[in-house]
């Protein structure tokens, strides 16, 4: 840029110097042509005697190379070289002046190529009686241009050196800030960052120190129910801003903060942003809906419970095998045979329903686990002999069944725990457009006023050091996600019946 600008301004200045010299020559020629003493000298016998001293005086005071005054025939009355007076003017550029024109021209005269200003001389009658030619040698003009260009080039060279040094320092500082990365590497990182930024499930929000948003990814917008661009908008009203300002004020990260915002509970992790000098410039927060985390934990809990049920079943059968082994060791063959018969009859009855009438393997696995758990707890868990169930539709997943059946059956087990003859019955059918699971217990029942609160999260009738209150709430949520319903019928001291209706077509019933 410096080289281009230097060339441009040098060209403009060269033209300007030449134009100024031409204008000066023309103005001098005009001034001399209007001088009365010059006009009167033309009427004298020797015009050169009067004009030559005057022209030389003006030439020396103005710095012109020559001032030539001549008549209409081009005979000189003045010239810097006295021997040239009386001779004809050279250059061949006098015609327009003799026709009354004022102009600037270039021509080669007795002193060499020059830039000339031409002006006609009029007498009192308005007739052209001669002309004035004031000139500057082109060699002198070019020398002045060269001198000016040299000065400009020196300044430009110094500016170029300074700019190169400044560019080097600036680029080094920029590379330090960009950790030595090239522009294409920065662009690639930016694209990768954006892809990661919008693909994570957590909402991410970044704000400046004044509370204006610099970044917000799509999951954050979905969680906060925001549409469109929010860049440079104030965070107030879109997110709990007091918490963000507090983190900026303290300057310390704040992990796993639970907050309630617009009807939902979110878990927030917040970290302040700092510049190279350590000053806090903003804050970035990542957050997630607590219900998603709870759902994941509940699913893991239910799977673990399912595993525990199977372990209980294994433990129960192991105990029975040890008893049978002991009877055989003692020679009590009759008792061993009776025990085998009783267990066989019970298993045949249970398995005939589980394996013959219930065709879905997911439900079979859950019921086998619950049978083992009931046996371990000394609870009579009976599956109705008229139960029938084909393979469940694809939209009813194992995780949902574990949450629904597992919680309702376990709730029934808890209800009869401690009774003399605890009993829980299960009836299953898929006749019609719905799949129906009915769980009945002979517990103490539920008070009528408590039934509406059964499926509220956190509500529990259990006492102790660690009451939960999430099982039935999770079951109710899973049923609603499958477009089903749960009904509860109960009276104090007469047991409780939970009935679950799940539509087969997943479109509601």
Structure commentary:
The chain is of the alpha+beta class and 509 residues long. It folds into 3 domains: 1-145, 2-Layer Sandwich (Beta-Lactamase); 201-292, 2-Layer Sandwich (Beta-Lactamase); 343-503, Histidine kinase-like ATPase, C-terminal domain (Heat Shock Protein 90), CATH 3.30.565. The chain contains 13 helices and 14 strands. The chain has helices at residues 2-33, 36-41, 47-62, 95-98, 138-177, 183-199, 218-224, 241-250, 290-330, 333-357, 361-376, 398-416, 471-481; strands at 66-71, 103-109, 112-122, 128-137, 203-208, 213-216, 254-261, 264-274, 280-289, 380-383, 423-429, 434-441, 485-490, 496-503. Strands 6-5-9-8-7 form a 5-stranded antiparallel beta sheet. A 5-stranded mixed beta sheet has the order 10-11-12-14-13. A 4-stranded antiparallel beta sheet has the order 1-4-3-2. The radius of gyration is 54 Å and the shape is rod-shaped. The model has no long low-confidence stretch (mean pLDDT 83).
CATH topology of the largest domain: Heat Shock Protein 90
In total, how many beta strands?
A: 14
* Mass-distribution shape: rod-shaped
Mean pLDDT: 83
Gyration radius (Cα, Å) is 54 Å
The low-confidence parts are none
Strand order across the biggest sheet? Answer: 6-5-9-8-7
Strand content: 15-25%
Q: Can you count the helices?
A: 13
CATH architectural group of the largest domain: 2-Layer Sandwich
Membrane topology: Multi-pass membrane protein
Organism: Fictibacillus solisalsi
Keywords: ATP-binding, Cell membrane, Kinase, Membrane, Nucleotide-binding, Phosphoprotein, Transferase, Transmembrane, Transmembrane helix, Two-component regulatory system
EC number: 2.7.13.3
């Amino acid at each position: 840029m410096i080289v281009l600008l230097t060339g441009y301004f040098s060209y403009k200045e060269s033209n300007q110097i030449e134009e100024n010299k031409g204008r000066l020559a023309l103005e001098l020629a005009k001034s001399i042509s209007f001088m009365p003493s010059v006009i009167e000298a033309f009427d004298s016998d020797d015009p050169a005697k009067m004009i030559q001293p005057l022209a030389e005086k003006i030439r020396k005071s103005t710095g012109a190379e020559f001032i030539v005054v001549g008549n209409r025939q081009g005979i000189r009355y003045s010239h810097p070289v006295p021997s040239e007076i009386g001779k004809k003017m050279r250059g061949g550029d006098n015609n327009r002046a003799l026709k009354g024109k004022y102009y600037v021209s270039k021509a080669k005269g007795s002193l060499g190529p020059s830039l000339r200003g031409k002006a006609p001389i009029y007498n009192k009658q308005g007739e052209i009686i001669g002309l004035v030619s004031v000139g500057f040698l082109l060699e002198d003009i070019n020398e002045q241009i060269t001198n000016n260009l040299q000065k400009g080039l020196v300044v430009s060279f110094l500016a170029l050196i300074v700019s190169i040094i400044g560019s080097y320092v600036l680029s080094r500082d920029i590379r330090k800030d960009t950790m030595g990365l090239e522009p294409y590497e920065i662009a690639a990182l930016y694209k990768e960052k954006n892809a990661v930024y919008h693909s994570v499930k957590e909402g991410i929000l970044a704000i400046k120190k004044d509370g204006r948003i610099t970044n917000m990814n799509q999951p954050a917008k979905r969680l906060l129910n925001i549409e469109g661009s929010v860049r440079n908008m104030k965070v107030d009203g879109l997110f709990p801003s007091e918490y963000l300002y507090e983190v900026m004020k303290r300057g310390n990260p704040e992990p796993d903060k639970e907050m309630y915002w617009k009807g939902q509970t979110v878990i927030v992790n917040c970290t302040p942003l700092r510049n190279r000098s350590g000053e806090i410039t903003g804050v970035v927060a990542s957050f997630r809906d607590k219900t998603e985390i709870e759902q994941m934990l509940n699913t893991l809990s239910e799977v673990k419970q399912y595993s525990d049920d199977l372990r209980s079943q294994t433990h129960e059968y192991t105990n029975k095998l040890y008893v049978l082994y002991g009877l055989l060791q003692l020679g009590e063959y009759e008792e061993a045979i009776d025990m085998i018969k009783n267990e066989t009859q019970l298993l045949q009855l249970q398995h005939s329903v589980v394996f013959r009438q219930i065709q879905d393997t997911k439900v079979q696995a859950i019921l086998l686990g619950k049978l083992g758990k009931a046996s371990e707890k000394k609870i009579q868990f009976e599956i109705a002999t008229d139960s029938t169930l084909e393979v469940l539709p694809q939209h009813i997943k194992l995780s949902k069944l574990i949450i629904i059946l597992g919680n309702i059956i376990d709730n029934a087990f808890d209800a009869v725990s401690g009774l003399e003859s605890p009993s829980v019955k299960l009836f299953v059918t898929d006749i019609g457009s719905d799949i129906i699971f009915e769980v009945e217990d002979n517990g103490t029942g539920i008070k009528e006023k408590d039934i509406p609160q059964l499926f509220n999260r956190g509500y529990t009738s259990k006492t102790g050091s660690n009451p939960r209150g999430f099982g039935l709430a999770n079951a109710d949520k899973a049923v609603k996600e499958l477009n089903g319903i749960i009904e509860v019928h109960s009276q104090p001291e007469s047991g409780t019946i939970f009935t679950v209706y799940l539509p087969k077509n997943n479109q509601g019933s």
